[in-house]
Amino acid sequence: MTKNVMSEVVTSENPQLVVLNGDLISGEATDGSDPGQYLHEVVKPLVDADILWASTYGNHDSDVNLDPTQDIYKHEIKYQNSLTSSMVSSPQAGITNYYLPVYPHKGSNQAPVLILWFFDSKGGHYPTNRGVNSLSGARGDWVDKEVNEWFINQNANLTAKYGRTIPSLAFYHIPAHAMLKYQKDHFNRRTTPGINGEVVVSQGSGDTDYSGQDSQFMRTLLDTPGLIATFSGHDHENDWCFKWNGTIADQNLTGNGIHMCYGRHTGYGGYGDALRGGRQILLDQTSMKKEIETWIRLEDGTTSAAVTLNSTYGQDQYGELATRMMRASNVASVNQEPALLPLVILWIFTWMCFHLRRA
């Protein structure tokens, strides 16, 4: 069923790039006997359609029977259409920390028009069945400080190399704490269309008490010139975007207008009865510094939560059609009070499709 969803969305949208934004494989449900086959089932619709993809890994991609390096990454990079990479070598850093430059259609000998940043927010458990490291127990479910420092340095190097700020987007599986604060204090379904069906489970909230584990990462996101929006997954019953202008007082962080978005639950594993689908992102290289079009393409061919991320997003009012909650039971209801997130997630992978409009 999951492969059918992917095929339907790809056929409807014909994207240039697909982002698999975490939880490709349900590690707790695997036996470690043939991890390459698990991954092949995930990417087969993209291979068949001959579409490029890039991944981040999520909390379910690492478990006692699933080593994300040996069992996923080393298999994924063998595919010709995979752009997934790993640029930070540290056991605590995770795997999928890297960036991809996007060049104008005239050729790659020019400066990039966009940088796509990918971060591993980790989570899950260290594998114990492969004997490749001495770490065990729960992995921290936040972007590591080494990755944060790498991000700062690499972004500065790119700015210096090309002599200007390059617009960028960022992807990571587990949402930042700012999304929870917005949902708790400011959520408005008229200005934030999409499903708001569960409490945000942010970085640092998994197997530990939250104590600002992602504060440094959030500060770096705010301090990164040209960063337009970030995209996460993790929470099956949320698929909205918000403009971060509010303050997280206990961390001395105030949003600067950056957009933070969810993808859409795509896989037919795990909890939730929302229709499956994927977030679409349309980029026009002549206007993307000012606005980005994004919407959800659903498995039944319809769309929802179509918004323009621009200077007035967060103030613009959207109608009932855009804010409805679409459920697999065909019962449409508007935003409800969030329910507690079930502690066990069997399988989710949220994904996004890119369309780069040429000048």
Automatic annotation (TrEMBL):
<feature type="domain" description="Calcineurin-like phosphoesterase">
    <location>
        <begin position="5"/>
        <end position="237"/>
    </location>
</feature>
<dbReference type="InterPro" id="IPR029052">
    <property type="entry name" value="Metallo-depent_PP-like"/>
</dbReference>
<dbReference type="GO" id="GO:0005737">
    <property type="term" value="C:cytoplasm"/>
</dbReference>
<protein>
    <recommendedName>
        <fullName>Calcineurin-like phosphoesterase domain-containing protein</fullName>
    </recommendedName>
</protein>
<dbReference type="InterPro" id="IPR004843">
    <property type="entry name" value="Calcineurin-like_PHP"/>
</dbReference>
<dbReference type="GO" id="GO:0016788">
    <property type="term" value="F:hydrolase activity, acting on ester bonds"/>
</dbReference>
<dbReference type="Pfam" id="PF00149">
    <property type="entry name" value="Metallophos"/>
</dbReference>
